Structures are given as structure tokens and as C-alpha cells.
Backbone:
């Protein structure tokens, strides 16, 4: 099942849209529009009467942005959009293990925003680093299996770390782990003009793998209109 975003360029970058049954890894610098990327497809799901499970580990809630993008209060959306907020890395793992309990017949999307937030905090304890690496790998593997066995699209949003060779380039947190499980990898950057965002598909390789979009109140647009700063 291919779920179009409603934005022609984004759909071309995604080879027609978001595919169910696959693991999509989206990473980018702060304010690159990663949450908007995830919510772009949550909005599509809602409009098609399909369900979403949204796991939010960030300090800000996605509710206000989702209301802005759909033009509806969350009370109208919550029958199809279930939001969970784990308080730590261990709790995130338990929630991912239990996702099958929350999946309904019409559930077609799981978004994790972001998978590595609590993981990075856990790494502050150097004594448990190896165990935390293994746990992140396990969580990603569970999500990949969930996508395949339930015909669900899984979007993993991820933070980045700067490379030593320059501040203009960056790599995803735990890139080696997430690259192993990812069917699609999308890199996002903040452009030079207001609202401009640059997207590039790294995996799989192919034609029309990159493009420029703009953040607006209703999500992504190919034109700079109704900008969201």
C-alpha cells in the first residue's frame, strides 16, 4: 500500500509516497521539519480514515502542529491518532514491545519522534553504553518486524550529530544501527531562504532523489506560501 503525502515533489522523492510494510528513517538538524514530515502522513491517514500511533519523546507536543495542519481540534482527531509519551529509554522499549496491543484493523502508520532522544540521554551513563546500544538495535528490529508483519508504515525521526570535518555536514545519531534496519533513508536540511527545507533520499538510490520544499501552516509545499517560521 502506497500512501501519498499530497505534495507532488515529496511523493516523487518517496517513490510515489509512503509505503506500508517498510521502515523509513528520517534525520535532520534542529528545525529541519522532521516532525512536519511525520505529521504530513498522519494528516493523510486521518483523511483516509486510517489510524496512526505516534510515540513522542520530544519535550514539545505534536498536537498543536497537527491541529494547525489539519484545521481540526485534536478532539476530532484522537479516535484515529493515538499519542504516547514515554518518560525514558526503558519505558520507550516497553511501549514499542507492546505496540501490537494498540494496533487496530485500520492502523497503517507508526511514527517515533524521535527514537534516539531518550537513547542519547541514557548514554550519559558510560557504564551502560553497550547495553543501550543493544537495546536501541532491539527496538529498531521490533519496529521493522512490526512494519512487515502488520503491513504498517513505520517512520523513525532521528536527531543528528555534527561531523568533525565541518559544521555544514552531519550524520544521524546511531547511524550504523538505523542504517541496518532502514528501507528508506531521508536526510533533511534547513535551506538558506525563509521556510526553505532541503530533502534528499539516500536509500534507495534512484532518480528524483532530492528536492526543495517549504514549511507552511498546513505542512510542506512546493511554493513559499503561508510560511511557518
Residues:
Amino acid at each position: 500500500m502506497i500512501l501519498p503525502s499530497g505534495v507532488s515533489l515529496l511523493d516523487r522523492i518517496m517513490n510515489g509516497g509512503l509505503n506500508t510494510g517498510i521502515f523509513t528513517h528520517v534525520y535532520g538538524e534542529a528545525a529541519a521539519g522532521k516532525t512536519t514530515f511525520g505529521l504530513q502522513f498522519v494528516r493523510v491517514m486521518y483523511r483516509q480514515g486510517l489510524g496512526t500511533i505516534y510515540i513522542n519523546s520530544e519535550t514539545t507536543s505534536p498536537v498543536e502542529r497537527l491541529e494547525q495542519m489539519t484545521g481540526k481540534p485534536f478532539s476530532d482527531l484522537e479516535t484515529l491518532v493515538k499519542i504516547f509519551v514515554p518518560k525514558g529509554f526503558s519505558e520507550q522499549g516497553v511501549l514499542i514491545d507492546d505496540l501490537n496491543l494498540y494496533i487496530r484493523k485500520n492502523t497503517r502508520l507508526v511514527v517515533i519522534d524521535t527514537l534516539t532522544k531518550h537513547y542519547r540521554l541514557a548514554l550519559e551513563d558510560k557504564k551502560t553504553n553497550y547495553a543501550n546500544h543493544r537495546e536501541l538495535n532491539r527496538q529498531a528490529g521490533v519496529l521493522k518486524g512490526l512494519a512487515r508483519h502488520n503491513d504498517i508504515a513505520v517512520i523513525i525521526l532521528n536527531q543528528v550529530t555534527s561531523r568533525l570535518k565541518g559544521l555544514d555536514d552531519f550524520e544521524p545519531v546511531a547511524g550504523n544501527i538505523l542504517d541496518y534496519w532502514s528501507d528508506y533513508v531521508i536526510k533533511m536540511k534547513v535551506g538558506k531562504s525563509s521556510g526553505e527545507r532541503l530533502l534528499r533520499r539516500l536509500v534507495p538510490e534512484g532518480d528524483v532523489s532530492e528536492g526543495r520544499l517549504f514549511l507552511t501552516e498546513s505542512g510542506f509545499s512546493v511554493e513559499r506560501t503561508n510560511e511557518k517560521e
Observations:
- The radius of gyration is 17 Å.
- The first strand starts at residue 2 and ends at 3.
